[in-house]
Amino acid sequence: MQYPKSLLFLLAAALLAGCATGSAGDKAPEFTAEDIDWPEGMNAQPRDLTPVEVEPETVLIEGATIMTATGEVIEGGSLLLEDGKIARVSEEKLDAPEGAKVIDGTGRFVTPGLIDTHSHLGVYPTPYVKAHSDGNEASAPTTPQVDAAHSTWPQDPGFQKALAGGVTALQILPGSANIIGGRAVTLELHPGISAQAMHFDGAPDGLKMACGENPKRVYGDRGGMPSTRMGTMAVWRQTLQKARETRRAYEKYREALARWKSAKEPDPKSKPQPPSRDLGMETLIGAMEGDILVHIHCYRADEMIQVLELADEFDFEIRSFHHALEAYKIRDVLAEWNVAVSTWADWWGYKVEMHDGIPQNAALIHAAGGRAIIHSDSPNDIQRLNQEAAKAYWAAKHEGMELSEDDALRWITANPAWALGIDEATGTIEAGKRADVVLWSKHPFSVYAEADMVWVEGVREYDRAEDPAPWSDFEVGQFADDASADDEEVQ
Amino acid sequence: MRLLNGQIRTLLIVLALCLWGTSASAQTSPDQTALGQTVLRGAKVHTVAGEVIDDAVIVVGKDGKIAAVGGPDTKVPEGAEVVDVTGKVITPGLVDAFTSLGVVEIWQTGSTVDHAGSGDAVRAAFSVSDGFNPNSVLIPITRTGGVTSVVVVPGGGLVSGKAAWARLGAENGAKQAAFVDDASVAMVVNHGERGARAAGGSRGAAMESLRELYDDVVFYRDNKEGYDQNRSRKLAASRLDLENLGATLEQGMPVLFRVNRASDIRVVLKFADEVGLKPIIVGGAEAWQVADELAERKVPVVVEPTLNLPERFEKLGARADNAALLAEAGVPVVLSTFSTHNVRKLRQAAGNAVRAGMSHTDALEAITAAPARALGRDDIGTVEVGKAADLVVWSGDPFELSTRVERLYVDGAETSLDNNRQHKLFERYRELPRRGEPAERD
């Protein structure tokens, strides 16, 4: 899948190209300065001023059990990581390329890097103080114009902890106070100075929407709309209708511009004027056009059905329902409509709409041919997604359901990769994919398993044997004994 | 409710044992006598009293207490029902020392939330047990995690009120999922950020309030007659609050101090010494920094073992091996989920404590005998003769995620594991209800 790169970046490149070659360049630039105020794609990524410099290592892991998340488990296999990619995965012993770090994986397990579709790291970072609380733009029930990337504090100590739990990529979403919460951003766990620097290369934006108790509570408590579920649906439909109209206006402009450009001698005076931009509507148009992937916080089966009808009415795809504790009740529909279900192993009950949660939700989705995902929504549980998947797996096995470990591993690797639109790049152990890989001390479904090493794009970002410096500046120098150690050195 | 301190309780156990030796206890109800003697044979038993017995025999008496425990040659009473649990693992029933189980059904539905008293800062007379619902649907779900006892705690305020000890089984065969068997097991007091907020804005204000309060608790105790005759200065709390706090003096009823920062823990310990309280530290994110002082005084610490993030400024020192470091220093460690709906995850919490460096033995003790001991329940928490037969039969290592609870006994009575709402919903939807094929996506 191709996604439009930064508009500004392309524009800058085009201008530079123009400068270098003069007006007689033989390749016409894709954009001209005249187009600057009009978006070509609705999924334009911001320009990254501080890209992460990636120095992947060459690694050969030997003798480990390789759980590929493709259906295949290789006992005593070899895995070669090179140039940030998985170079080879093999049942045979491989020759180590020159300069390769060779790791004895005997008794240990390898999986793809874990992926979380639902995190608020950075937007609700620790410590949980008001100064840090940037996850809900709860000033209006629909805020499609906001972007979680702009709230993400890369110094959240939780990022490094998630990495140490084997997570290599995660989606940061706005909260669920709003019916339309805004754009979500997918990050890869290299330390970066900004969320833009941590952006997962090529990942499309997400769009967070929510139904149920949260929006009606937040706005109902203020005497506003929505205060009911029917209010939520009405606001939703009204907003999507506006997006549809805006989309038509944009299309008309595009067509008029194309007609004008195709004239033999376009008259500058009659050049069509672009409609004024509406950033929020552009997000929704992006979702309608499939460039932005839609993630909907929704618990109850009946509400999910209504939201599917909404998607049908306004012609957009839902990539994944999140939390979705009653998904098991409509698993046939969700499988038929190819909507993934991001849920928990055992969270339930603290709201009425969570009263019917059961630990077999993920397994029942899977059994119906649907795409199950275990997500965290938590800076704590994101550190143990392997345990969460294991619990959901065993809850089903104990009820006699047919299920393989590989199936359950896919709940935290391949399936979330699909939901985030990065499945061609990551999510399984296959040659050619990014070297997003975890080496576990034990079977990852054991409560005692630890990630020994975690590679992100072939960079060993975590090594349990080392005592790494904190990524987060926040964690530096917090305790007096740090200072007293310095004093001793001075003496 | 009258307070039973540890010694009285021990005395009662001894008394009960003597009676059991001769005839049925005078307090035995008809339902209990109906209970047959059960023998669990063949399991590996973690007694949490210093022994692991392979191929063990446990004899559960008609009084619901453990009558015998030992190796395969242990004498078995005639006519007893023998349950073959060969290859299984038995532990004492798990205890979660800090929950809202039974007093909160749905957190975001206020009408089902009974964990907190009035808006006053001091709510010592608030008894959380008054709101306990033994028919909460959460309770049978909690049992699937092998939990047989919980401490139900009140929240809010500077002094939150009295915590209760609840057992997750039927009382005397009654048709209910749980019962409170001690309504006043501890007093809950907040310090640190919580206490500061309740007291009007600072830690100093919280301590000032607590000092004045305890001054008046003593004054009231010593001048009750004058108080009743209206010959008293104005006191810092109501009569009932002062009365209830009196129970914590002279190291009586333990006080659960919710506190996290190392310096706050030190302040609380000093205060407890000044007043003569028996403190238990709850939360204790930075307790590892004060481990030696806690160990020296044998102050128990209730820890959430997966906490490793600086969730608040008072938890900047949070680390995953907190429990391991405390145990190593000799502090009595108690592990808790601090949960309501997922108290069943207690064993996973213990497994993660082990993952972070705690010994398996210490972690098991921290969710059985240690919480019982900390709260004066010497009748619970180990597999020893005379203790309550609160037992869990596991399919394997209790902490491992693949392990399930196969049988559960509370006071010697086997308790259903499948009779819970989640299991019933699963059964109801194991096959989808009949309806038309789902519409295709256009």
UniProtKB/TrEMBL annotation, chain B:
<feature type="domain" description="Amidohydrolase-related">
    <location>
        <begin position="294"/>
        <end position="409"/>
    </location>
</feature>
<keyword id="KW-0732">Signal</keyword>
<dbReference type="GO" id="GO:0016810">
    <property type="term" value="F:hydrolase activity, acting on carbon-nitrogen (but not peptide) bonds"/>
</dbReference>
<dbReference type="InterPro" id="IPR032466">
    <property type="entry name" value="Metal_Hydrolase"/>
</dbReference>
<dbReference type="InterPro" id="IPR011059">
    <property type="entry name" value="Metal-dep_hydrolase_composite"/>
</dbReference>
<dbReference type="InterPro" id="IPR051781">
    <property type="entry name" value="Metallo-dep_Hydrolase"/>
</dbReference>
<dbReference type="Pfam" id="PF01979">
    <property type="entry name" value="Amidohydro_1"/>
</dbReference>
<feature type="signal peptide">
    <location>
        <begin position="1"/>
        <end position="26"/>
    </location>
</feature>
<protein>
    <submittedName>
        <fullName>Amidohydrolase family protein</fullName>
    </submittedName>
</protein>
<dbReference type="InterPro" id="IPR006680">
    <property type="entry name" value="Amidohydro-rel"/>
</dbReference>
<keyword id="KW-0378">Hydrolase</keyword>
